[in-house]
Amino acid sequence: MSIRAVIFDYGEVLCTPDPDAWHNLLTLTGLDAAAFERFYWEDRRDYDLGILDARGYWTHFATRVGLVFGPVQLAALIENDVLLWTHLSEPMLAWAAALQKTGMATAILSNMVPEVLRCMRQEFAWLRHFSQLTWSCELGMVKPDPAIYLYTCEKLGVDPAEALFLDDKPGNVRGAEQAGLRALQFTCIEQLRPDLATRGWLQNVPQPGADEVSLPA
After folding, report:
1. pLDDT number for residue 209
2. Domain ranges across the chain
3. Which of 22, 62, 149, 211 is the most exposed place for a label (fewest CB within 10 A)?
4. Torsion angle of alpha carbons 31, 32, 36, 39, nearest 10°?
């Protein structure tokens, strides 16, 4: 069965965390990188599900680390959290655009918080080129729940076995495989090309990192 759709995770696949925003978050909280990252992800699932809003998420974060954030600090945390996840990977977006030009169906399936999504919709006109956009905060489902992969395939009109899913997190890749999709763990675009070649996937379409692809408008 041939691949008819490519489904991309967003964070650390189509975007790369912005180093300046990361530094600002560490400065605002006074935590070292390891401690910040540990507490950052503890309540992220509820934020991705839309159970917590931005204020609730950062209030939970503060409680866990024994801090109190005032209104100015809270606003800065929210702003930099959005900036962290809106620093794009131009090579990966260019490859997605090249696939779209061949008629390949493409989708984004992302655990996503409302504030980042709001900014993306305002700033990223290229989102309209994707056949399907699946955001966890709007569905109340998160990866690796099999239902969110099956929902995306249904919206694309493809069988799960006809879809290739790319994600940087191993657990999300396993979730996709359990739902019947083909899946690869994404590390970098340089590795993606040989990973596809090894499996014989997508060899008759533009390849990731090819010189001829360009960033979508």
Report:
1. 87
2. 5-16+89-199, 19-84
3. 211
4. -80
